[in-house]
Amino acid sequence: MNDFDAxxxxxxxxxxxxxxxxxxxxxxxxxxxxxxxxxxxxCIRREAGFQIELSARLLEADERAxxxxxxxxxLHTCPDCRNHGEVWKTYAAAMNAAYGYAIARTAxxxxxxxxxxxxxxxxxxxxxxGAGFPRARASALVLHPERYRCRCGGRLERxxxxxxxxxxxxxxxxxxxxx
Length: 179
Fold this sequence. Notes:
Strand content: 15-25%
């Protein structure tokens, strides 16, 4: 199990060695978010400084994936780096070059060696090659797979046995309509 707090100290030392102006007001305790499914980390600005939060999915991940994610979030504490703008990209490139990270705006599960555990309520499948396209929401693809084609050119169909509803439609489960 990874010790996020110790890894944060390591990342802050690496950034400091490169002269990257990370904030000195980062809470030294990294919070573990057990509900985060679609993100690996988050940098939250608070009155007292910054709080870095990592997904519980990284607790068992490779240490390198944790270091890279912590570095990504720590860079958000630098001046003019709350977004993924040019200054943030410059610092990320410096960390990548010096330490072999692959810090980017987003990272896929496979890139970090973390299993994809996002919930998929719907599954659209290619009739020709069998490729599956899991979806958590009732998107246009889920609602009308006949309008789309697979990369191989095959027709798509929904195979999960569910009947999706458009967002805002009457929901039988909670007996109320939403707008």
